[in-house]
């Protein structure tokens, strides 16, 4: 995967995320050069709709997703994202 999807997630560009996720051979669990998944990045910034779309496409939830949503860039906990992660984890 090129960096386009990572950039779209980072910019909270939901339309581009949807478009790129629709392409074949997209691994939503691939990591960037720092070892972060797309879902971890979206959780960190609290991008609820992007998180939801990634989960719908098979993104795996791990402890880093929760940790990043709890200790976000804004120093606030993203409760809505954490709740979404719990919902998907219990499926």
UniProtKB/TrEMBL annotation:
ANK repeats: from-to residues: 34-62
Alphabetized Pfam families for the sequence: Ank_2
InterPro entries reported in the protein's UniProt record: Ankyrin-EF-hand, Ankyrin_rpt, Ankyrin_rpt-contain_sf
Keyword Repressor in annotation: no
Keywords assigned by UniProt, alphabetized: ANK repeat
Range of residues in the leader sequence: none
Protein's UniProt keywords contain Membrane: no
Protein name: Ankyrin repeat domain-containing protein
Species: Niallia hominis
